[in-house]
Predict the structure.
Amino acid sequence: MTGPDPGAHPALDLDDAVHQKTRLALLTVLDEADRADFPYLKRTLALTDGNLGRHLDVLAQQGLVHITKGYEGRRPRTWVAITPEGRQALAAEMNVLAALLRRFHDNGSGPSA
Amino acid sequence: MTGTDPDTLLPDLDRLRARVRADQRVTSAPMVAFGALILGYAVLGGLYAGQLPAGGRHLTLLVYWPLATVIGFVVLWRSERRRAEKEGVGAGRRTYGSATRRYLIALVLIVVLFIPVLFVGVFAPMIWPAGVLAAIASWRHDRPLGIWAAVIGVTGGAESVYVIANGGLSAGWWWLQPAVYTALGLALVIGGLVINRREQRTT
């Protein structure tokens, strides 16, 4: 497998699994908190159970988050933690977004200061 | 989250990070904890230790900050664990649990290798909590806490330099040190409570 062409547009480096805005927000929250429970993520990002579950499944399949289901007393509780791969993927995504933003402003097409 | 345009997405993500940090009480919790410990020092140093002979007073003040800092870290550690249990938000990569362990190792090294450092707690007592708050601010990338640490350090340090330069306080000025420490402690606690309310509104 060859790496991306150094002259290629930075948008080609975006990772589909991470770039989707809900998943990007989930990784950002988890990068800051290290771990959070299901209700906290739902509340913070204003998501439904089903929507949050689907996005977490995508991230977990990619190895970007780790989901632990357990009980606290008799109450079920699901914790989600970011993995080192998740942090790396988020950092790479932020670098690409920053590069895109620079390119956007350098081309003079950004909002005037 | 309003869109996928980097121009709006990046500020949105910054706001999201700020919201998580507000939920973690990153700024207010250490301010209230160490503000209360400074008030404790003002009471101990100004009222109680003043009645002891010089040796007992110095010993009390010598051990106050090393031990009070352990108490401060343990309180912050317990409160972040309680917050995780109650609200479901983790403390981040840099927890007060690891801060407590690191501090205890540093304290042992100070006692074994650099014992004169402990005298900071006797002769320039506000430098110690200011240093601890500055370390927490740097460790958790928290600028407002760093500013508060600088205010405590500069004000408390200036007061200590003044006292040392004048060979101690004259009999009529015995109240100056406890008054300065009480003011600094109250400023930190009240400032922490105000920031705490702001953090609650952010969430």
